[in-house]
Amino acid sequence: MASENLNGPSYLGVTPPISTNESSTREKEVTVTLMEELRRQKTFESEDEAKTREIVLGRVAALVKKFVKKVSLQRGLSESAATAAGGKIFTFGSYRLGVHGPGSDIDTLCVVPKHVSREDFFDVFEPMLKEMEGATEVSGVPEAYVPIIKAEINGIPLDLLMARLALSSIPDNLSLKDDNLLRNLDERCVRSLNGSRVIDEILRLVPNVEVFRDALRCIKLWAQRRAIYSNVNGFLGGVAWALLVARICQLYPNAVAGAIVSRFFIIMYQWSWPQPVLLKQIEEGPLPVRVWNPKLYPSDRAHRMPIITPAYPAMCSTHNVTASTQMIITDEFKRGAEIVDRVIIGTAEWSELFAKHDFFHRYRYYLQIIASTGNPDLQIKWAGTVESRLRQLVMKLEYVDSLVLAHPFIKGFDQVSYCLSEEEVRAVAQGEISDVIASRKKEDIEGKEGAGPVYSTTFYIGLAIEPKPAGSVGPRKLDISYPTTEFTKMVKMWEKFDESTMGIVVRHIKNTALPDNVFDPGERPAKTVQKRVKGSKSNNTSPDLPNKRQRSSQSDLPLKAAENGTVPPSSTLTPVAESLPSKDIRSPQLPTGENAALAMGTVSAQ
After folding, report:
1. Is there a binding annotation on residue 334?
2. Which one of 263, 274, 421, 447 is most buried, counting C-beta atoms within 10 A?
3. Catalytic residue at 107?
């Protein structure tokens, strides 16, 4: 929203820009090399794929009109009225932002008139989609938080949502900007509409859309490579990253993409959380719905890194951030600022910014959370349920004495194991997959009694443990039994949980016991040599390591899981010195230079 300054021109955002100057020659040069690197990293789709997307969207748009007409006729409307009822699609997400890459899906909203129901979307539109030429893998998920149909058409994946407006027809020139369109809609329709409305507002609130897109493409790739791109696991999702980049664009309206990326890291590293990031002042609207307001709602006050959506009703896009994930994100902002500073002075390349994360090299101990079933469709739902609760485990672990942080990895690792006996099934469910089981194929178990596949998804949490106090003697134990037991109880409370078909196991493992599937080919360090993480003490020379006899008898304790996915009543770790984020990450010394206070401004939630 443009704010008006009586003595000067308008500006975008809640504060005036920090600088309206054009970028320097050097910043323009590094922008050219940045775009070259992004192309090398294959973040852009081909012209052929772009054309295919446009053709597919055109066909889906036509199908939505056909769907609305079909339902309208079933409701008794005349031929002319049924044709006039319309129907329209809107894209959102990375495609609408213009930062999608090869193979990424298109988030698509199907807007229909009031006489078309959500049941019609799944009972009528889904079968029509399945019959469309080139359509594969069409599957509806009506019970999802935001009901969705997933499809692939001519190789292009789509996520289709539906919103039913309180209108008798949907004209081709319909805009979703009017807040009054949200009147008399159910919550699912409001949520479905909000994705598209937020993206449209972001694009309206940035001074230069092309610069914004180029800078966001860079930040998105960086966040993915550094394993901090995941809303569900307590980091930031696509909308939140877009909002942060958009705010920096508002503060430097005439800067090129390379300069925006540089300022992004400097300002975000300095940001005084929980000061919210806003693209415009929060507004009230026509609905009796909750708008983000930390003065009114204690749960809003608890948000650690509030990044607020600009479309009504304003919401926090980062409510999942925990103390641990905030510390990790801040550490990455610092690393990014240092690298980009060196890029600008010519002593580093952009490729260094996009170096792969070191999650599976960083810690000595990890928690393994293994969700398993014997059915592929059930596994998707069960693993998704477990993943959606991982943040609660992280928050419980943060209260454990001596644990500095609990670092969740952003995705699970799926595996299908073909087992010949109940004993093998139990072993796989507990994460013990032998080379024999791992190499077995489907045909090896066909027709054998008691044999069958086990579908497992394994999630990881890295445990950073405080160094022992100076002068202390002997190994120190870390009890994580309470958070792990409470977590398993919580996931079993899922209404569809079935003890006989679903397994859940939580156990700790040492870094040397990590399975091969978490590493890229050739990435795994040799078993006898611990890979040294830059800036950390080698595990082989740490003063906190017990002697060899102690290591073998005490620090290598497996957390064995009982049958049916239960967790034993106690689990202990012998902690050692970890590669921790440096102390200044938790209370950073602000770099001199940019006026971060001006960037934050004084904002209020009415």
Report:
1. no
2. 263
3. yes
